[in-house]
Amino acid sequence: MSLDKKTILLVDDHELVRAGFRRLLEDGDKFTVIAEAGSGEQAVQDFSKYHPDVVVMDISMPGIGGVGAIERIIARESSAKILVLSVHEDSVFTTRAMQAGALGFIPKRSAPEEMLRAVDMVAQGKTCIAPEIAQQLAMQKLTGSENPVDVLSQREFEVFRLLAEGKTVNDIADILNLSPKTVGTHHTNIKQKLNVSNSAELARLAIRCGLVDA
């Protein structure tokens, strides 16, 4: 292994996705994947164990999820360099990830050369956001518009997204490793904060915010 190569911790809950990204990253002479993690919890542990130059991470995973993992990694090492790769291209997810401490955010559908460029930029400590997402953020700032879901905590946001996808309280409890009672409490708080009274209104709001497809 070349000493000049940047070390990568690759985090995604789908093994096939990790395999594809690993092949892409290691195809050149700039990067080497020193560890893979299938959950946010494992990512935090592996970061402390391997101290990679860059963490390349999905945002939607069971348990603490990507944002929860970013927060914990940054709490341990404020200079950690994290790039988020996600199927979500709405500015809501980007804002959550960047506020947690990520340096970059690009869609998983990005061209291979765009992904490699993003990893390289983040490795240098530079911010990298996909142009189409950056445009969304700029327009929001320009118009002064706020997303209604900004009032939610990170855990409430995860529960809200899963509810909007049609998941039941028990489903969400399993996915996030929470008790059904805790999920129920989050559900109640979410409805109060967003001023919605039922699941249909919640789903419509999620569609309007771009969190789920119509």
From TrEMBL:
Superkingdom of this protein's organism: Bacteria
The record ties this protein, via Pfam families, to: GerE (PF00196), Response_reg (PF00072)
Per its record, how is this protein called by name? Answer: UvrY/SirA/GacA family response regulator transcription factor
Start and end residues of each Response regulatory domain: 7-123
Originating species: Methylophaga marina
Swiss-Prot/TrEMBL keywords: DNA-binding, Phosphoprotein
Q: Which residues carry this modification: 4-aspartylphosphate?
A: 58
Gene3D superfamilies recorded? 3.40.50.2300
Query: PROSITE patterns attached here?
Result: HTH_LUXR_1 (PS00622), HTH_LUXR_2 (PS50043), RESPONSE_REGULATORY (PS50110)
Q: Does the keyword DNA-binding apply?
A: yes
Q: Identify the coding gene.
A: uvrY
SMART domains referenced in this protein's UniProt entry, alphabetically: HTH_LUXR (SM00421), REC (SM00448)
Task: Tell me where in this chain the HTH luxR-type domain is found.
Answer: 145-210
